[in-house]
Known about the structure:
By secondary structure, the chain is α/β, with parallel strands linked by helices.
Amino acid sequence: MLSLPVRPSALLPSLPRSKSLLHRHLLAGTRALHSFRPHFQTVNPSIRKPNPSTEKLSPSILSLTTVACNRYKPSQSRQYAHTTAMEHLQQQVEGLNLNAVAGFPNCYPDVNLLDVYRVHLSNVLTEITGVDKNIIYPALSWTQSLDKGDLVLAAPALRLPKGGPKPDQIVQEWAAKFPENDPLFEKPQVNSYFMSFFFKGVPLVKSLLPTILQKGAKFGTNPSLGLKDPRDPSKGQKKIIVEFSSPNIAKPFHAGHLRSTIIGGFLGNLYEGAGWDVTRINYLGDWGKQYGLLALAFEKFGDEKALEQDPINHLFQLYVRINTEMTEEKEQIAKRKEAGEDVTAAEANSLDEQARRYFRKMTDRDEKALALWKKFRDLSIVRYKQTYARLNIHFDEYSGESQVSEADMGDIGKQLEEKKISKVDNGAQLIDFSELVPGKEGKRLEKPLVRKSDGTALYLTRDISELLARHAKYNFDKMIYVVASAQDLHLKQLFKIIELLGHKDIADKCQHINFGLVLGMSTRKGTVKFLDDILRDVADKMHETMRKNEDKYNQVENPEAVADVLGISSVMVQDMTGKR
Length: 580
């Protein structure tokens, strides 16, 4: 039998309680459902009062929800298409005190029904206490648990004059003056200098359910938060870029990418629900010497038929094999060198050097080299999209290191030189932050290279060019990088260089959201746990658990699909419950 927990926080484990409108409505809705118990007890005395800390809602309460929802058919919900939550509540409940709603800070009655409750309560308490309602409204706080009420007010937060009654005494007087027949709230309960307020269930259900039906999937979101100027919607939405996931092409999506993908997807949805214009970017690792190495592996060991049938795994196997050979080769050359042999020819024709030369052909736009690289990239993206679809994750743009032009990076190098940000050391271009940033911060930022002595641009150079190009393209108000904590120093260096180039306004818009690494995995050594394998294993485990109860199992229409969804959900929830 389906049951609903008394504490619906379990339904939203990753959302901050104080910031989730949907969470507050779930809490309020649960409170409202419990308020109907006395009505059912008159018909069925066996329905007893619940224990809020342990008990779950009975089928009778769930039936009430079904009845209430059925009262508002979709055709009826359309009647409220042009009715705000506040207006509908006024129609349902007499005696509301909703004076000067627009004057309250962070009040959105059109989308948040509970803001209407806070406005009403603020106005009632102003008449009782004599305290300005604009002081009372922000002081009304959401509680951490249902046993402490739905809203709580601490008397010291109202800036009471000195020399008057003590806070714990004055709240007793205020509670006694609270109206017995208030349309939305029960009489407050007093504990020390706190007053706890409980919603009345009937008006809440009558207004909340039509609001949910009317807004549908948009219920719980607030598009006003994303406006550049809430007083003038014509100025448009604020723009945010979220860069996340960012795997390396030709390698399977593994558990190490999962945290970035889940956190980034969550942040994108969160900002979208808050009304921001969100662009989700997957900045692929699709350029560098390793792709020269992979091309060599494909020329030596590749199989076109295997590539067509299972491109990602075939390329990964080649990558592991060629890295094993290269490691062994380096060890042999090192031993020969120690023995005093001349290894110049061996080093010049080593796999490492061959990969370097192949990548140089790619940067020189050699057609054959680029065609093979593009084939690897396109096949990888197709496979990644299938994995993202399983996780209900999507991207607006697949970008990558390869998309940054050599001309742009050359221009960045010149700017760094002209502005005396970088210097040349042994033919290489580097930035010594200790000479540019005073104190310990400059030393912590170290001395990163921006261009090698052979003229090859590095990862940092590409990121500088890419960041400035994105700002020119999107003119974003905020950009978030969801990248592992191993890149903390790299991102700090990037933001500081952007600032030193004269773009402090852009640097201030950027934020790094980091997270811990999944340890013990290496794609070179082949010790990676791939996400598809993880999802398959947890789906099998879920299916096995479901089969333990044959009665329930037989009621499930498509048990394999249900097990797959439950498995994916469990992986995502488990990963989000861990600390970053």
